[in-house]
Amino acid sequence: MMKKFVPVTKLIGTFAFSFWALVMHTPLPLVGLVVIELILLGLCGNLSRNIKAVFSLIIFAVFLAVVQLLGGGSMESAYVTGLRMLAMTIVFIILLTTTRLQDLTAALVKQIKIPYEYAFMFTAALRFVPDFIAESQAVQEAQACRGLSTKGNIFKKVINYMSVVQPLMLKSLGRSETMALSLELRGFGSHEHSFMSNVQPKGRDYIVIFVMLALSCGIVYLRMQGLV
Amino acid sequence: MLEMKDVSFNYGSGVPVLERVNVKIGEGEFIGLGGRNGCGKTTVTRLLMGLEKPVSGEIVYNGKVINGDDASVRSHFIGYVFQRPERQMFRPTVREEVAYGPKQLGMSEAEIQEAVEEALKATQLTDLAESYPPNLNRGEKQRVAIASAIAMHTQYLILDEPTSGQDSEDKEQLMELLSELHQKGMTILIISHDMDIFAEYCQRVIVIGNHTKAFDGTPEELFTKRPDLYDLGLSRPDAVALSMAAPDFPYCKSMKEFTAAMLERIGGTKQ
Q1: Which of B70, B78, B82 sits opposite A142 (nearest CB)?
Q2: Please, what is the Cα angle at A32 between A41 and A7, to 5 degrees?
Q3: What is the ipTM metric for this complex?
Q4: Which of A19, A113, B140, B172 has its CA 20 to 30 A from that of B89?
Q5: Would the pTM count as exceeding 0.80?
Q6: For testing the chain A interface, which of B51, B53, B69, B87 should be mutated: the one with the most A CBs within 10 Å?
Q7: Any A CB within 8 A of B132 CB
Q8: CB A150 within 8 A of CB A160
Q9: Which residues are CB-neighbours of B260 under 8 A, at least 6 positions away?
Q10: To the nearest 5 percent, what fractions of chain A are helix, strand and coil?
Q11: H-helix or E-strand containing B20?
């Protein structure tokens, strides 16, 4: 469903959902927003594949809420903080799981008018997240073969994880250097760019963008009335 | 004795990687593990090491089923050298790097020092003991990884394609080191695509093909009697091919042996 829309529509949608999450200041509408996002993720067929990520975000949201409570906030503000973070992050999962990175780069450069170098940096960083996780797993396995146990209390785990972080950082730095050289060798930095992706918005994209704008105005109005 | 009994494995997709594999690895053996790319060689060693769990079947060590033991437990008796040894290096010196494993085993300070010195000496790394591991070349990094396993007093040493990307000198040096360790009683299991290694150094070769053990026997049997040698993704080493081509020639496992046999045949001597 979401794949029918061009990246700029999804980017505007992402920022619209984040904006709504910031405008809302009561828990119930925020719960509704999170539920809508989860339904959208499910409709895209990506909920089951990203259930671990969603679960991790929920744990982080609970952690944020607890910090808010411990910092002297009310129970309601704790709920709002956790739910707001959840709403603002799940929408990014929808964006990233339904958009090809090269299309996203093309949209950022062509429509949002972000300089190519910055757009490339953003999408390249995203591209390396799964590689980074795989490399981290490989280093953990290598250390497990030398007797490193992942069992024990949280402090022991943190200390043990240091033996994973260092080779991982060295590997990542080496990889960045190789990538930088590879980019330079292929003319990175040239002023002329062309893109293979066609990211021109169509009629349905304009309708969705209009609906997003209208909803944003509506939510701001409801907030001024103290209803959300 | 390390055994795989009727072990089957897949990566969760249901597509079989290994089916009903039975392998026995006795103490003091020098075994080569071969087969086509993607046939499941590395999976066999990962199952032995505990980095993967069998879908069915058992991994047995000295009569005890160890399916539930993870890699950190099995590291007490199995050392594993990865294709990219730099993944495990994070200490500031080679000496400290080698000492990391023994520390995880809870050895005393004196025991650690003794184990490290012995391991550095065995791998000829004493001169590089204070070097920064990431700065070493590939061959030296491999030796650091082997030293790390030796220092843990492991009985078994598994190496995943240790000679790939190495020049002939580094390769020879590494294989000599493994031969020495084998002579001292260590069991070696080496994954390789290098047929010369199988022929010259291994007592036994196991080949994985069609998701299971396709061959288990001596290198001589593999290279001289198996008509499906090339179907299994292997090839005949030059020394073996030459010795088979020459009439009434003995089986030669290396070019050194072939040269000696040829000189003997023509009655000459090597200069």
Answers
A1: B82
A2: 40
A3: 0.76
A4: B172
A5: no
A6: B87
A7: no
A8: yes
A9: B270
A10: 75, 0, 25
A11: strand B16-25
